[in-house]
Amino acid sequence: MTAIPRTGGLAGLARGRRKRLAPYLLLGPGIAWLIVFFLVPMYYLGTTSLQTGSLEIGYTFNWAWSNYSDAITNYHEQFVRSIEYAGLATIIALLVSYPLAYWIAFRSGRWKNLFLLLVIAPFFVTYLIRTLAWQTILADSGVVVSVLRSLHVLSSDGRLLATSAAVIAGITYNFLPFMVLPLYVSLEQVDERLLDAAHDLYASRVTSFLRVTLPLSLPGVFAGTLLTFIPACGDFINAQLLGTPGQYMIGNVIQSKFLQITDYPQAAAMSFILMAAILIAVTIYTRLLGTERLMG
Amino acid sequence: MSATAEPLATSATPARTKRARRPGRGPLAWLRRHALSIYATLALIYLFLPIAVVIAFSFNEPKGRFNYTWEGFTLQNWLHPFDVPGIQDAITTSLEIAVIASLAATTMGALIALAIARYQFRGRGLINTLIFLPMTTPEIVMGSSLLTLFLNQGVNTGFGTIVIAHIAFNISYVVVTVKARLAGFDRHLEEAAMDLGANEWVTFRKVTLPLIAPGVISAGLLAFALSIDDFVITYFNSGSTVTFPLFVWGSARVATPPQINVIGSMIFILAVGGMLVNVAVQYQRAKRASATA
Amino acid sequence: MTDHLTRQQFLRRAVAGGATLTLPSVLAACGGGGGIKSGARTNESTTPVKTQLAKTVTWSNWPLYIDINEKTKKHPSIQQFEKKTGVNVTYNEDINDNDSFFGKIEGPLSHGQSVGRDIIVLTDSSGLPARMIKLGWLEKIYKDGMSNFDNLQPSLQNPSWDPGRQYSMPWQSGMTGIGYDPNKVGGTLDDVNELLDNPKYKGKVTLLTEMSDTIGLVMLANGDDPTKITDATFQKAVDRIQKAVDSGQVRQFTGNDYASLLAKGDIWACFAWSGDMVQLQADHPGLKWNLPKDGGMLWTDNMLIPKGGDIFTASTLMNFYYDPKIAAEVEDYVNYICPVVGADKVLEKTDPGVAKNTLIFPTDQMLANAHQIDPNAVLNTDYKQKFQALLGA
Q1: C201-212 burial by CB neighbour count: b if 16+ within 10 A, else e?
Q2: In whole angstroms, what is the distance from residue C55 CA to residue C70 CA?
Q3: Cβ-based neighbours of A76, under 8 Å, separated by 6 or more
Q4: Are A99 and B39 in contact (CB under 8 A)?
Q5: Could you report the per-residue pLDDT of C165-224, keeping only the tens digit for each?
Q6: Cβ of C376 under 8 Å from any chain A Cβ?
Q7: Interface test with A, best of C20, C22, C37 (most A CBs within 10 A)
């Protein structure tokens, strides 16, 4: 039987036009949603960031770029710290998650979906209860701290809570599924026959991992690190519950400007600076990974 | 590629013995063989440690209103999980919102991922940036600027606005996750299907969708988790509707009833239990299929 | 939302596509503090209050802040009100933080819209009730219909931010003092100076994220007056706290999550609210709470009527809770400080344990030692900024 002609005649013309329209139809609903419910609010936010004033005297739009410069001068410490903590958390999450995702993808057989669910199910339990549980586990009088103190990892009156370690650990833990799931998604796609072929060509397990699996899983690594790093930069809740003033991140500052000081222009300006910083970091990262292909 | 067979022959023998991987004796060899499984187990334990504590404390019997230290074992909390007023409505609302928002976001996000991965179109870079932006926005400004939008349009805040907000922030996560799957997607399979007479819709249903399913399901799970746990954005756009996180944060000022732990554990157990049933059903189906084959 | 478009203007803009996205209209409609808005409006309500009860009244309050029947999950006092007046009460426990709630309602209120609530409850020490009065966002309560108004505790009748109680009626009060574990600190602890300076307590102390409470207690320890704050006294308190933070003496600044830290022994002493201790002591009877010897802080959660709320019905509801019998019912459950005179007499017969608890019915001596924060200080943005900087923000 002959193949259905795909490009000939009127039918082909219609299909061709459909093909051209196809991406826009696919993009349509989601992008429209984002434009209405994200871009428009961002526009309001943008105009707010260039205003001065207060609720009492009213706000005036006067291109107040000082909101931006003040934010950088006063809070660059918190900006930098946020990038640091988010970066560390992402790296640790990657190191913890990759083997786990690998194991689920290659070794768990028919239980794949179950383990996938097991990875994310802890996060159906509200953040506050999870954190209270961690506070119980890592309490000064708890088992973990006692063991660490006797191993001299901690000083005799050292603690785990209310430290940078606690904040970074909190961020790492709370973003683990965002690292595991994309990694799994990418790893699961790796054709085992490729690994068999590498095996047949006398590659050791390590070599076949480094030369076959790892490169093929890069899209997952890329996605996972983005899904972890980006939101982690703006996180505030871990620093608030698990940290001291010395650990506060830019998210805490924005929170404070917004709620306590009610300085909406400043809060808005800081948000845009944060967004810009993250976008720049992501662009550099993309170039480094050489992932124009991955960016889509 | 060497012309003579000799070098190959000499390298083959030692390599073969190396590769044969003699069944090692001793604990070190066992460790090396099972390193990955051990590591994965440790990682899973790490993930579940706080959940174990949450479940443990759901059996706690504090005399006061706080559930911070172990006071005694009781089954009462599990027998009367909805005794705390408002908790039942809160969790029902949260589940409804999470289901709707994750379904909608997953659908729209997967379509976007498909479009970006497959087609060339103008504005590609802009679209990619637009996808990343919501993830970079601090929740408090995203929540409050959405509220401003609703105010200006005279939309009453409540269930509907929460759903809208959740879909808005979930789309990005879905797109990034599904794109990771599409990156390794083999277009030839689709072309083969079309060559065999399938039209685009059938190809999509029978070839594309099953192949990207893990990505879509993972994205859906992520979206569900994000939605059911969201606090800040929900707070600003909720009006008087109370979701489970709002309830927990709200009551935490004066009390942390063990029932909160019970509900949290219930969701977890139900999800895992549901999946176990699913796996069992699949297994039975596969067994039956191979038996009758 | 403040400009009224003529039909022509609307059609023209709609045709241009994206009606609301033209720059001037967006700026005018901008919320979150956007646009060219007039400043605070004066609260001149010239329309007389309609003395007719509405069919429903919506009341937003803090969680677990009203009596409840654990079996029926209903609030007996509210049921009694509904039966007596025939008004349906929608009771929402959606306030869990003053600043966050304000952030949520400032949008509609600054646009001149109603927030769909007739009564809200905010703490005076957050400065927000005073601020809302200044912004013109509150309705005056209808005192003419309030027969129980005089049951208000004399010490609460004339706060400087609302003289004569024109806009507010206290719901509950509380005191801020020192919560501690006597076993860990070795006895009674009633000196804030000890918390801040004693190296034995290094890393075992937390302070509160509430500016009024923390600054207030430290100022009292410095010998200054928190009811009349000056730049100098404020700075002195800030410097002292900064020293304690830098040296590691202060472990963290907390909301009410100090309760879990104290219960577990991660901290030994903290600035704490009286009502929380009552709850903690149920499981940890050893924990104690004192007013500091230099004095503590007194705060009040106040019932307020936001603009657009039904004044008469709301005032009637407030009045209902100033009946000592009803107040006693509520107090028996809530266990903060009751603002209604006579409630303790009622409780002496029904629940003497509660009636005798000085954390719920403090003695006159205790009240004399508890001060209310200078309301102007909490509205001062400079002060707020300095305090937030202490917190790391």
Answers
A1: bebbbbbbbbbb
A2: 27
A3: none
A4: yes
A5: 999 999 999 999 999 999 999 889 999 999 999 999 999 999 999 999 999 999 999 999
A6: no
A7: C37
Count of alpha carbons within 13 angstroms of residue C117, beta-carbon side? 25
In angstroms, the CA B217 to CA B278 distance is 14
- Residues of C within 8 A of A257 (CB-CB) are 393
- Residue A2 is given by DSSP the state P
Contact indicator for C226, C220 with CB cutoff of 8 Å? yes
Q: Nearest-CA distance from A61 to chain C in Å?
A: 7
| Predicted TM-score of the model (pTM) | 0.84
C113 min Cα distance to partner chain B (Å): 9
Write out chain C residues lying below 8 Å of B66, CB-based: 259-260, 263, 279-280, 283
Taking only residues 113 to 142 of chain A, the set having a beta carbon closer than 8 angstroms to any beta carbon of chain B reads 113-130, 132-134, 136-137
Provide the CA C199 distance to its chain's centre, in angstroms: 33
The complex scores an ipTM of 0.84
Q: How far apart are the first and last CA of chain A?
A: 37
Q: Could you give the CA distance from residue A17 to residue C119 in angstroms, rounded to a whole number?
A: 60
Residues of C within 8 A of B83 (CB-CB) are 70, 73
Question: Can you tell me whether residue B25 is helix, strand or coil?
Answer: coil
- Interface chains of chain A (3 or more CB pairs under 8 Å): B, C
Give the whole-angstrom CA distance, residue C14 versus residue C19.
Answer: 5
User: Which tokens go with C115?
Assistant: 């927030």
Considering only CA atoms, which of C179, C177, C181 is closest in space to residue C264? C181
Residues 6+ apart with CB under 8 A from A121: B51, B268, B271, B272
Angstroms from B178 CA to nearest CA on chain A: 8
Residue of A nearest to B106 (CA): A30
C31 close to A (CB below 8 A)? yes
Hey, which bits of A13-57 come out as E strands? 51-54
Contact partners, residue A106, CB within 8 Å, separation at least 6: A187, A192
The confidence band for A184, taking pLDDT boundaries of 50, 70 and 90, is very high
Quote the pLDDT of residue C137: 95
Contact B237, B143 (CB under 8 A): yes
Interface chains of chain C (3 or more CB pairs under 8 Å) = A, B
Give the residue ranges of DSSP H helices in C91-210: 98-110, 128-135, 182-185, 192-197
